[in-house]
Amino acid sequence: MNDMRPLERIVDTDNVKIAAKNVQVYYGDTHAIKDVDVDILANTVTAFIGPSGCGKSTFLRCINRMNDTIDIARIEGNILLDGEDIYDKRVDPVQLRARVGMVFQKPNPFPKSIYDNVAYGPKIHGLARNKAELDEIVEKALRRGAIWDEVKDRLHASGTGLSGGQQQRLCIARAVATEPEVLLMDEPCSALDPIATAQVEELIDELKETYSVVIVTHSMQQAARVSQKTAFFHLGNLVEYGDTGDIFNTPQDQRTESYITGRIG
Amino acid sequence: MPVFWILAIVLVLGAAGYVLGRARALSSAGDDYRSLHSLPSYYGWNAFILTVVPALLVLAAWMLIAPIVIDGMVSGLVDEGMQEGSNLSLLMSDVRRLAAGLDSAVSSGALSASEASGLVADNALAGRLMGLGISLGSSVTETTLAAAQRYRGLAAASQVWMAVVVIALAAGGLLLGLRRINPSFRARNAVETGLLALLILASSIAILTTLGIVLSMLFETINFFRQYPASEFFFSTTWSPDFRGNSELGILPLLWGTLYISLIALLVAVPVGLFAAIYLSEYAGPKMRAVAKPLIEVLAGIPTIVYGLFALITVGPALRDYFAQPLGLGNSSSSVMTAGLVMGIMLIPFVSSLSDDIINAVPQSMRDGSLGLGATPSETIRSVIIPAALPGIVGAVLLAASRAIGETMIVVLGAGAAAARLNEGLTEAINPFEAMTTVTVKIVSQLTGDTDFASPETLVAFALGLTLFVITLALNVLALYIVRKYREQYE
User: Fold this and answer.
1) pLDDT attached to residue A1
2) In B, which residues are within 8 Å of A102 by CB distance?
3) What H or E segment, with its residue span, contains residue B478?
4) Within 13 A of B363's CA, how many CA atoms are on the CB side?
5) Mean per-residue pLDDT of chain B
6) Looking at chain B from residue 162 to 191, which residues have their Cβ under 8 Å from any Cβ of chain A?
7) Residue at a domain's end among B150, B185, B220
8) Which residues of A touch B366 (CB under 8 A)?
């Protein structure tokens, strides 16, 4: 996973999972996202990069309608998930969030046991018929989160007692347990040390076999390491979007080049 | 010298300490005051503290101890000349009253100082004193007068010495504070220590007061149990005090009333308060919140007597007319239900306001995490927010319970002042439309009026109070245990 030659990796598929068209986001009077068009592919890791405040996290939160919880946020335009507009009145944002899981910047395990943390989603969505099935789902999710071996002997210990890296992997396992189709990650490694970061990145690479993963990151190395597609945001605009290799090696836009080479941001 | 002047002098010395200390620190630093260890004002404050604090401590101690010492010295004198059958404490209070009367007569100019000290205990004296506005319990005897004169002498000497010692101490502190000043003296740390001592003093006052309250209750309770068997008090099911004797002072009917009314109050207040708090903190917009929260808190500002009136003239009759009488449960407008409902309304703001703050303190990341997994807001509240906020919510409920148990006015006006009748069958005892009363109401009724503080009918009030205290303490301990055991701690 420390492969720093993004050019040689190819995008596996051309299935569009999420299609955003002409998306505008306003926070009160602030126009936070301007005219964003982007197609996110299935079974691909897509990285959003850009300086702080450029709108990448805001856009990420639009994809599972987490911005609905902010009173002053207003969204225009279309975001299609498998061809269906997620801002359509008929779409239940609660159901949508079960399909589009999210991992946050700061690990936020619930103050419950490790088991209950992971079982939370399956329980509220009724994914398990009995205790045995639930146990199975929890184990599978923890294995996918690459944390099973570390916690299998203390599933009933508190999730908040784990180390930062373990907590974040627990949160990933928690998100995976509801079997989403898309996994959104908002700077998942910003609170982690390099070793934990490496573990999470390895995990992300495995997750793309099953999900479409969108990751916001401030680390360009991380974007280069884990993603196949990269989108560069600047001041609320999507400046450039393409294969990670192209963005890093032959950026088309002056601003992208400046950012990547460290002249702005 | 009056205490006021002593205080003023000490404070003036303290202020001088501040000014001089600051000036001395500045001059000792020479050209560059940055060579001082602390800011100049810290040297000033240090001198101020050294001047004022020991002097005031001694002043306070002197004022507490001197009367006791003087009493001890004078009571020896009274004791010797005491007649058969008279009471030392009554005589001593006569002595003190006489001494105070003479002092006020001297200060108002009715007697000259020499006249006052030259009084003779004859029959004319009592009348003369009466003319000066000094009334005494018994006739003025030679002993009383002599003791009173001695009392005056000692008190005057004590005043003078107190002034001398306190002012000398302040002056000494001032000099010491000033002498200690040099650029390397750590005045900042010394002031810090002084502040720490102040904070410790404040918290120990709170703790010691609690201890004092418990002890005073304890002694009176022990007195009570000397006169009345404890087993009767704790296990008798009848409460019928009679000041002529033969009282039955069983706590059970009162305790049952207290717990029953409190239970109904909490059944009203906890769900309503908690749901209101959840609405305000999780669902309401900022405008709604800004209006609703103060409106709910207005309830907390209503005096309980007003709630009592509401219970008496509105809730009680309404419950009687629409529930109790049609259902054949009673004819009284005073009922457990009336008091419980009204008390529940009173407690709503306690529960809601505290719970609201606690729910708001749960980090947003918890909500995001749950909503991000596709949980609805109410699922999030039930499974994540409430468990995380549980210790605080239990605390809020407990505070409400303590208020309910201690509430008196609403009970008197809402539920009456008749103790529950536990001997007349279960239905009587648990009928919520029966009049009942609580421990606190009975404490008031046992202590009001013309009462003898030595009879069990009066002393029972202290036993009741102590029992109530123990119960609320046990509730607190239980709640702490529950919270420790089940809390889900977030960072």
Assistant:
1) 45
2) 368, 372
3) helix B456-486
4) 12
5) 86
6) none
7) B185
8) 108, 110-111
Residue B296 maps to a domain: yes
Interface touch B369/A121, C-beta < 8 Å: no
Range of the domain at B380: 232-486
Contact of A230 with A49, CB cutoff 8 Å = yes
**Residues B180 and B236 occupy one common structural domain:** no
Above pLDDT 90, what percent of chain B?
42
Answer whether A120 sits within 8 Å of B374, measured CB to CB: no
- CB contact at 8 A, A217 and A47: yes
A8 and chain B in contact, CB less than 8 A: no
B371 contacts in chain A (CB < 8 Å): 66, 69, 97
Report ipTM for this prediction.
0.86
The alpha carbon of residue A143 is apart from the nearest alpha carbon of chain B, in Å, by 19
In a domain, B372, yes or no: yes
Best interface-test mutation with A: which of B281, B287, B358, B373 has the largest number of A CBs within 10 A? B373
- Return the domain boundaries, chain A: 11-260
Q: Are A180 and A210 in contact (CB under 8 A)?
A: no
A178 interaction partners in chain B (CB closer than 8 Å) = 373-374
Give Cβ neighbours of residue B400 (< 8 Å, ≥ 6 apart). Answer: B265, B266, B269, B270, B273, B347, B350, B351
Assigned CATH for A11-260: 3.40.50.300
- Sorted by sequence, the CB contacts under 8 Å of residue A87 that are 6+ apart come out as A65, A75, A78, A79
Contact list, B284 vs chain A (CB under 8 Å): none
Structure tokens at B253: 């009917």
Q: Are residues B244 and B309 in the same domain?
A: yes
Least confident piece of the model among A183-187, B57-61, B121-125, B388-392 = B121-125
Contact B488 A120 (CB under 8 A): no
| Average pLDDT over every residue of B235-263 | 88
**Pair B333, B468 in one domain:** yes
Q: Element (H or E) spanning A78, and its range?
A: strand A73-81
Note down pLDDT in tens along chain A; length 265 residues.
444 554 445 544 568 899 999 999 998 888 989 999 999 999 999 999 998 888 888 999 999 898 888 888 889 999 999 988 999 888 898 889 999 999 998 899 998 899 999 999 999 999 889 999 999 999 999 998 889 999 999 999 988 889 888 999 999 999 999 989 999 999 998 878 888 888 889 989 988 888 899 999 988 889 999 999 999 999 989 999 999 999 999 999 999 999 988 876 5
In a domain, B192, yes or no: no
Interface check B379 vs A, CB under 8 A = yes
